[in-house]
Design brief:
It contains nine helices and no strands. By secondary structure, the protein is mainly alpha-helical. The longest helix is centred in the middle third of the chain and has 27 residues.
Length: 173
């Protein structure tokens, strides 16, 4: 027989030995571990029998009566205070499913918003168009237009400096 079954009957062996099954008593005679457990339990029970409860102070009854009177005369707490006390000092077993549901909702919402941000970051968004100054536009236009370059070259020749001016084809730096 395993030791777990007879150990269930240890308190009965001390308090009411007639209710203990014979196989548990037989195991107790054979198993030194369970016999030691029984002796320790008997020693504890003897200490508890010898223990005397302390006497209350002489003014205990008076102070208790005053506190009870104050509690009766005080105004009943509101529903918010009762809820706070119930949540702080009551059994919170009924709150656990609601807390689990709120936590699951929080995970779903935050996960969805995270996935929404990630999917937005992966979409192809055209880069913003840069604003280019009019000077740069003019220089690019001059650089690409051969006719304009020829006209500028003809203006330089008619300035009267006497030499032939050559205009380079690249004005931008």
């Amino acid at each position: 027989m395993k030791c777990e079954k007879p150990q269930v009957h240890l308190p009965d062996m001390i308090l009411d030995p007639t209710r203990v099954p014979a196989e548990a008593l037989q195991h107790l005679k054979e198993c030194s571990h369970c016999a030691g457990e029984l002796k320790e339990l008997q020693a504890t029970m003897q200490l508890l029998d010898a223990w005397k409860a302390p006497e209350p102070s002489p003014y205990f009854d008076t102070r208790l009566a005053v506190r009870l009177r104050e509690a009766r005369e005080s105004e009943a707490p509101g529903w918010l205070e009762r809820l706070r006390l119930h949540l702080m000092f009551g059994s919170n077993l009924h709150v656990r499913p609601a807390a689990a549901a709120a936590f699951a909702l929080l995970i779903i919402v935050s996960g969805g918003s995270y996935l929404g941000v990630v999917s937005l970051n992966h979409t192809v968004v055209p880069p913003p168009q840069q604003t280019v100054s009019a000077t740069v536009n003019d220089l690019e236009l001059l650089d690409s237009s051969a006719q304009t370059l020829q006209q500028l070259a003809s203006f330089d020749e008619t300035n009267g400096d006497g030499g032939s001016a050559t205009v380079s084809g690249n004005f931008s730096n």
